[in-house]
Amino acid sequence: MQNPFMAKAIELSIENVRSGNGGPFAAVIVKEGQVIAQGTNRVVSRNDPTAHAEIVAIREACRVLGHFQLTGCEIYTTCEPCPMCMAAIYWARPAKVYFASTGEDAARYGFDDAYIREQLQLPPAQKKIPMAQIMRDQALKAFPLWEQKTDKIEY
Amino acid sequence: MQNPFMAKAIELSIENVRSGNGGPFAAVIVKEGQVIAQGTNRVVSRNDPTAHAEIVAIREACRVLGHFQLTGCEIYTTCEPCPMCMAAIYWARPAKVYFASTGEDAARYGFDDAYIREQLQLPPAQKKIPMAQIMRDQALKAFPLWEQKTDKIEY
To answer: Least crowded by CB within 10 Å, which of A16, A94, B44, B153?
Structure first.
């Protein structure tokens, strides 16, 4: 199956390597048959570890739509999203995601998402990056303020 | 234990609710005893579903450092990071993370990270947001290009 949106994303992923902007990944976001945003991996060129193709494209699509949700949108990404991007997709709530290569394909070229996915399942004390809990009681105070706020926008 | 960096983050989280900028979350990033960046949840005020406190602070800290890694930095976040932010932390590679309230505390106020964490473990076909694989063979072409690129910066 040849899909023009995925074909565009693949073209962008190849250009992204050639131009030296970042890793071999790109994403295109479509609403009602129209491309509304695209993104490529810009981690090294923007000094931003969160600038994966999907995150760049989600942020751009939300800017275009003027909303923090991608209701009714489709994301075409050249590779199965890493755990950061997959969770970002859940927060953005598009209608559907199309991906081409798999996380395993990416892992063969050094992009090891499986390690992060495993780490996410561990309790804080067992994680490889040390995590310590302090000052819970003080921090809890922000939550009732949020609950009581009558004009808040839930997300 | 009273920690001045976490106390600052908690103060920011409370201000963030009062000002209507977003959810009750904030983060502060410290290097060599100095605050180099801070972030609060800006999802609704910036129309950006990825603008969680930790992501905002990580992007700012990397901008300040001029690098895509947070080597030697500590992140102080008012709440245990959601899966998106936790994975972003793994990509940013700080030395240590301090958190105050837990994901369970946040869930009691409607921030349900556990649902996303569960979804991340499911194969694409079983995920709640539909995920379909197409055009893998064409997408794979970007990887050898990346591998052969002699001047690439790995991340």
So the answer is: B153
Beta-carbon separation of A58 and B67 below 8 A: no
B11 a catalytic residue? no
Q: What is the pLDDT of residues A95-146, one digit of tens each?
A: 999 999 999 999 999 998 999 999 999 999 999 999 999 999 999 999 999 9
Write down the catalytic residue from B54, B104, B147, B154.
Answer: B54
H helix runs in chain A, sequence order: 4-19, 43-46, 53-65, 83-92, 103-107, 113-120, 136-139, 142-148
CA atoms within 13 A on the CB side of A71: 6
> Exposure string (b/e) for B87-109, b if CB count within 10 Å is 16 or more?
bbbbbbbbeebbbbbbbebbeeb
DSSP codes of every residue in B111-154: --HHHHHHHHTS-GGGSSS-EEE--HHHHTTHHHHHHH-TT---
Query: Tens digits of per-residue pLDDT, B88-146?
Result: 999 999 999 999 999 999 999 999 899 999 999 999 999 999 999 999 999 999 999 99
Biggest CA-to-CA distance, chain B: 55
Query: How many angstroms separate the most distant Cα atoms in chain A?
Result: 55
Does pTM surpass 0.95?
A: yes
B119 near B128, Cβ under 8 Å?
Answer: yes
The region, left, alpha or beta by phi > 0 then psi within -120 to 50, assigned to residue A79 is beta
Closest CA to B22 of B38, B41, B39, B9: B41
Which chain B residues touch A1 with a CB distance below 8 Å? 134-135
Contact B48 A69 (CB under 8 A): no
Distance from CA of B54 to the nearest CA of A (A): 11
**% helix, strand, coil for chain B, step of 5:** 45, 20, 40
Q: pLDDT for B31-44, tens place per residue?
A: 999 999 999 999 99
